[in-house]
Amino acid sequence: MLTVETRHAIDPNSTKALDTDGLRSHFLVEGLFKSGEIRLTYTHYDRMIVGAAVPDGKDLVLDEVKECGTKTILDRREMAVVNIGEDGTVGAGGETYSLGHGDVLYVPMGSGPVTFSGKGRYYITSAPAHRAFPARLIRLEDAKKMRLGASETANERTINQFVHPEVMESCQLVLGYTQFHGGSVWNTMPAHVHDRRMEAYCYFDMAPDTRVFHFMGKPDETRHIVMKNEEAVVSPPWSIHCGAGTGSYTFIWAMAGDNIDYRDMDMVAMEDLR
């Protein structure tokens, strides 16, 4: 079963007028991981798609998505799949790939239908593409790692870069995930913006009674969305990116836009936050 929801882009001035329910309806993506289903959210932010597939023991095939306007979803798109569940397989382009927990599969443009199998819980991101690069299965040990922050500022973390220029080639999709060290809960503080690229996050590995406060908005007009395990959020290019949790968590970040330069960001000084 395939379900697709469309999210239209919204500007910062309009966002100012939204209440809590309004913010959540525009930016929060809930209920992605549904047993026996593929659920996608098609956004008008750089045409990024975020979604999930949970085969739960039976094959799920992602093929035509009407919102893309092509015969199959990957006719003019590339895709990255992150397995946040148990072992499973993903088939595309005539090949089958075995994904363990935390593994990432890059699927290039022109790969045809994508089949999800096994006990995996697959987080899906997709962005428009202009050429086909080789498919690649990237395991955690093969990712580029950046260790940042400190325990004194509660933001000691390891950034694992998978679909990234220093690991492999892609068109515009950049993806990885960030893992926090014991006692650290703050991500990317001081905050930053990158108006050249949108970003989407998926928070997981959270205990049922913990929450993440995802911060967004213009630097002088900050807002927040309270999120629980296995929920995603769309962060517009004009918005700050940062968050804090009440306990440990991991989050997948995916970007699309004008460039694939991970370091292309504009830092926001603490005194400019409101």
TrEMBL record:
GO terms for biological process: D-galacturonate catabolic process; D-glucuronate catabolic process; pectin catabolic process. It catalyses: 5-dehydro-4-deoxy-D-glucuronate = 3-deoxy-D-glycero-2,5-hexodiulosonate. InterPro entries: KduI, KduI/IolB_isomerase, KduI_N, RmlC-like_jellyroll, RmlC_Cupin_sf. Keywords: Isomerase, Metal-binding, Zinc. GO terms for molecular function: 4-deoxy-L-threo-5-hexosulose-uronate ketol-isomerase activity; zinc ion binding. HAMAP family: KduI (MF_00687). This is 4-deoxy-L-threo-5-hexosulose-uronate ketol-isomerase. It comes from Roseibium aggregatum.
